[in-house]
């Protein structure tokens, strides 16, 4: 029943007070409300490490995809079969064309509930701001729901893709992908998909331009060991092991400052420089109470996490390590461990071109424009994603999560995604999937 006219201003004031912000009470269509609800449902499945509920995720995603008419397959790359990899397929009208793969990982990093303002697995939606709070809201459980809802929209519009579109939902990305995409990329099943191009997760953008990632940095580990003459703690002499190690650490620190300086000055993004950070140091002679304090030890050691943009001159970095960071004449030896290859199967550096030499890039860029969006300058991701396994095969892959005007909260407390941003992402994927799956090149 309508309130008497004279009470209306008061009622309005009360409503505004309760809601905090003047958002309309029913801003969404029924379909949009359902889409938000499906996102929340997926977020409530606890796929965080250390014990991700992959069975729960599969029980949600497989019938969801089947209800949209997609074919579903479950692959296993572990003998215990506790880490399913789901493949959802929308067959194209021309199976001779290479397919489009849309990837997403099902797992997420753990959350510490006591540090969150809302429980991290409740997917609470704040009615005032539209923010949906949950571990995985940005990284990256929005993606499969957006992919599937975009397909729903395209099907409703009568669209039929020329290329087959696959969605892969993989386990264990957050723990390195060993039992997930790494094994998948090496499998016969992957080869049979004949993937021409892949889209994988990217990151939120605090501005109104979408971010896109065309490479991951290479991950290396460097261990430097120093030797030197031992001696009494009271004696000053040249050539002690710790002194030699300090020379190495100082040289590396100088290089690090120069690289970091370019990031601080805004000249380069954090993924576009070589990062090197000491992660452990080891020296000294243990004693029952700690360390012997009056002997200078004959050995010392330091470990570095070293990450390189694939566009870097790799041989030059190797020379720098050998000649400047750990020169043998200073009694230094080193071990350089490279995780993963430096070149793809065709012997090229591992990145996806973002110019007209790569037709997939042009199709993608055009689709973003047609969706009313714009892209910021393509970036190299400073960490790693599953995309690297695909790029290593020489297949182009871009990292992209359609989240603009959103703080970067992956792996952080109070990770959230705003409902409207989530919904806009569905529209963006409608354009992107339509364009990629229609591409005839
Ligand atoms: C190298 O180590 C040896 C002992 O192992 C020591 O005698 C020598 O002075 C050291 N030289 C340098 C340059 O540190
Ligand atoms: C496109 O980018 C690649 C890789 O950065 C580069 O080698 C090539 O010269 C560029 N081609 C054109 C046409 O700009
Ligand atoms: Zn992720």
Automatic annotation (TrEMBL):
Residues that bind Zn(2+) 2: 139, 174, 411
Keyword annotations for this protein, in alphabetical order, are:
Hydrolase, Metal-binding, Signal, Zinc
**Transmembrane annotation, as ranges:** none
Q: Report the subcellular localization.
A: Cytoplasm
Q: Which GO terms describe its cellular component?
A: cytoplasm
Pfam families according to UniProt: Peptidase_M20
Q: What class of enzyme is it?
A: hydrolase
Q: Please indicate if the UniProt record lists Endoplasmic reticulum as a keyword.
A: no
EC number(s) of the enzyme?
3.5.1.14
Kindly list the positions annotated as binding Zn(2+) 1: 105, 139, 201
Q: Could you name the active-site residues? A: 107, 173
* BP term (GO), one: amino acid metabolic process
What remark does the entry make about the cofactor?
Answer: Binds 2 Zn(2+) ions per subunit.
Which GO molecular function terms does the record list? aminoacylase activity; metal ion binding
Cofactors required: Zn(2+)
Signal peptide start-end: 1-27
Q: What is the protein name for this chain?
A: N-acyl-aliphatic-L-amino acid amidohydrolase
Gene name per UniProt: LOC101779195
């Amino acid at each position: 029943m309508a309130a008497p006219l004279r009470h209306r201003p008061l009622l309005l004031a009360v409503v505004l007070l309760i809601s905090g912000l003047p958002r309309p009470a029913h801003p969404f269509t029924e379909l949009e409300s359902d889409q938000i609800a499906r996102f929340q449902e997926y977020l409530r499945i606890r796929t965080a490490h250390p014990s991700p509920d992959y069975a729960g995720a599969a029980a949600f995603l497989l019938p969801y995809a089947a209800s949209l008419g997609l074919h579903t397959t479950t692959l296993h790359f572990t003998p215990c079969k506790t880490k399913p990899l789901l493949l959802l397929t929308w067959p194209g009208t021309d199976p001779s064309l290479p397919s489009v793969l849309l990837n997403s990982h099902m797992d997420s990093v753990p959350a510490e509930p006591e540090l969150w303002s809302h429980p991290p697995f409740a997917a609470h939606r704040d009615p005032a701001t539209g923010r949906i709070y949950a571990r995985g809201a940005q990284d990256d459980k929005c993606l499969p729901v957006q992919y599937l809802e975009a397909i729903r929209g395209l099907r409703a519009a009568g669209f039929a893709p020329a290329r087959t579109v696959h969605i892969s939902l993989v386990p264990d990305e957050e723990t390195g992908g060993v039992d997930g995409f790494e094994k998948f990329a090496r499998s016969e099943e992957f080869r049979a998909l004949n993937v021409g191009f892949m889209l994988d997760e990217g990151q939120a953008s605090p501005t109104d331009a979408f971010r896109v990632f065309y490479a991951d940095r290479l991950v290396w580990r460097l261990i430097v060991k120093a030797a030197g003459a031992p001696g009494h703690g009271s004696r000053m002499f040249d050539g002690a092991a710790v002194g030699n190690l300090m020379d190495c650490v100082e040289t590396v620190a100088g290089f690090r400052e120069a690289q970091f300086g370019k990031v601080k000055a805004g000249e380069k993004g954090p993924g576009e420089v070589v990062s090197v950070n000491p992660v452990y140091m080891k020296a000294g002679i243990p004693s029952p109470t700690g360390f012997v304090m009056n002997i200078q030890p004959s050995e010392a050691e330091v470990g570095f996490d070293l990450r390189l943009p694939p566009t870097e001159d790799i041989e030059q970095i190797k020379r720098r390590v050998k000649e400047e960071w750990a020169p043998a004449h200073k009694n230094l030896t080193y071990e350089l461990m490279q995780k993963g290859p430096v070149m793809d199967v065709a012997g090229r550096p591992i990145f996806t071109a973002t110019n007209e030499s790569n037709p997939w890039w042009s199709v993608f860029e055009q689709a973003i424009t047609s969706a009313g969006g714009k892209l910021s300058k393509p970036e190299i991701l400073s960490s790693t994603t599953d995309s690297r396994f695909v790029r290593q095969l020489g297949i182009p892959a871009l990292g992209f999560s359609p989240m603009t005007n959103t703080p970067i909260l992956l792996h952080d407390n109070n990770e959230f995604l705003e409902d409207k941003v989530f919904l806009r992402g569905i529209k963006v994927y409608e354009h992107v999937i339509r364009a990629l799956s229609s591409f005839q090149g």
